[in-house]
């Protein structure tokens, strides 16, 4: 089976480590492209050897074109700035461009907006995108999976994101 192509963009909100762990726990048979801003992460910090790193400034990267045929895109964490741009169709960097490509190609797009509380503008942007089929999945803690540590809580959230994208995982204890 051909490996599926996944793009993960890490934007300037709190929770950069969640985006990094989302990449690190991925199954090996997925082709992973990661977009990082210059101050977010370094090349060495990824354990998954299949990762291709792209600078968010590199608007000419392969993944910028719909013809590259990315299967799913995730922005984790997603700043309110990036959320607003995606909701308005602005593609001024590689992260916002890949989101626009996912929308136009009608591929899976997951956004993990990170802010607390959310403003009415942010909620309006989320509502608009959710109505277009975008998966709006903020990093919300769940207390029913018996997570005893921060690491387990993070695995629960990442596992829920994988579930939403159809990526098999056993990262958390499911409710039985
Ligand atoms: C320490 C720090 C923490 C921040 N946390 C958040 C956050 O949790 N959510 C958010 O929407 N913006 C947050 N911001 C603001 C964004 O970084 C800022 O809006 C930036 O322009 C986002 O750019 P980007 O969307 O291109 O990554 C934070 C900024 C700083 C300096």
Structural commentary:
The chain is α/β, with parallel strands linked by helices. 32% of the residues lie in helices and 19% in strands. The protein has a single domain (4-165), classed as Flavin prenyltransferase-like (Rossmann fold), CATH 3.40.50.1950. It has a six-stranded parallel beta sheet with strand order 3-2-1-4-5-6, with helices on both faces.
What order do the helices and strands come in, and which of them pair?
Elements lengths: L3 E7 L5 H9 L5 E7 L15 E4 L16 E7 L1 H9 L5 H11 L3 E6 L6 H12 L3 E2 L13 H16 L11
Parallel strand pairs: 1-2, 1-4, 2-3, 4-5, 5-6
Helix pairs in contact: 2-4
The protein binds flavin mononucleotide.
In angstroms, what separates the terminal alpha carbons?
32 Å
Distinct small molecules bound, one entry per kind:
flavin mononucleotide
Q: Find the count of extended strands (DSSP E, 2+ residues).
A: 6
Kindly report the average pLDDT value. 91
User: Main beta sheet: strand number and arrangement?
Assistant: 6 strands, parallel
Individual helix count: 5
So, the CATH homologous superfamily? Answer: Flavin prenyltransferase-like
Radius of gyration: 15 Å
Shape: globular
Q: Spans of 5+ residues with little confidence (pLDDT < 50)?
A: none
Question: Which architecture does the CATH hierarchy give at level 2?
Answer: 3-Layer(aba) Sandwich
Largest beta sheet: strand ordering: 3-2-1-4-5-6
CATH topology: Rossmann fold
In percent, how much strand structure appears in the residues?
15-25%
How many domains comprise the coordinates? 1
């Amino acid at each position: 089976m051909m490996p599926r192509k996944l793009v993960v963009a890490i934007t300037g909100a709190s929770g950069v480590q969640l985006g990094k762990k989302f990449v690190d726990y991925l199954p090996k048979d997925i082709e992973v492209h990661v977009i990082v801003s210059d101050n977010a992460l370094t090349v060495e910090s990824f354990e998954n050897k299949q990762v291709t790193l792209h600078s968010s400034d590199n608007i000419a990267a392969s993944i910028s074109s719909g013809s590259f045929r990315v299967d799913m895109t995730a922005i984790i964490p997603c700043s309110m700035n990036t959320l607003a741009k995606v909701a308005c169709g602005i593609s001024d960097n590689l992260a916002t461009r890949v989101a626009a490509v996912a929308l136009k190609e009608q591929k899976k797009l997951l956004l993990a907006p990170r802010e607390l509380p959310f403003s009415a503008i942010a909620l309006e942007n989320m509502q608009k995108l959710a109505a277009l089929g975008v998966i709006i999945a903020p990093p919300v803690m769940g207390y029913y999976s018996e997570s005893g540590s921060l690491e387990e809580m993070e695995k629960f959230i990442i596992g829920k994101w994988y579930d939403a994208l159809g990526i098999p995982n056993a990262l958390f204890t499911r409710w039985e």
